[in-house]
Amino acid sequence: MKEYFYKKEYKYMYLSIFFYNFANALSETFGTVMLYKAGLPIYLILLIYGFRFLITGLITPLFITISHKI
Q: CA-based Rg of the chain, rounded to a whole angstrom?
């Protein structure tokens, strides 16, 4: 088990995954703040994110089904 945690390649892989997720969280948070600061009302911001999650929620199972059949 130690070989997985002490190899340089694995450390870089874990760090890259962590920083990628951290950067995504920051961009999502500040993206919403920038939309609000630009003058968009809250209900439009919620509508934009609602459409985004609706589309993601509908398309993801479709792609999983297609990739499973391939």
A: 18
Helix ranges, the chain (H): 2-6, 8-37, 42-69
Mean pLDDT along residues 38-51 = 92
At which residue do the structure tokens 């993801």 appear? 60
Query: What is the per-residue pLDDT for 61?
Result: 85
CB–CB of 42/36 below 8 Å? yes
Residue of 55, 57, 38, 35 lying closest to 46 (CA atoms): 35
Q: What is the pLDDT, as a whole number, of residue 5? A: 67
Q: Residue 39 has what DSSP assignment? A: T
pLDDT above 90 for 21: yes
Sequence-distant (≥ 6) Cβ neighbours of residue 42 within 8 angstroms: 36
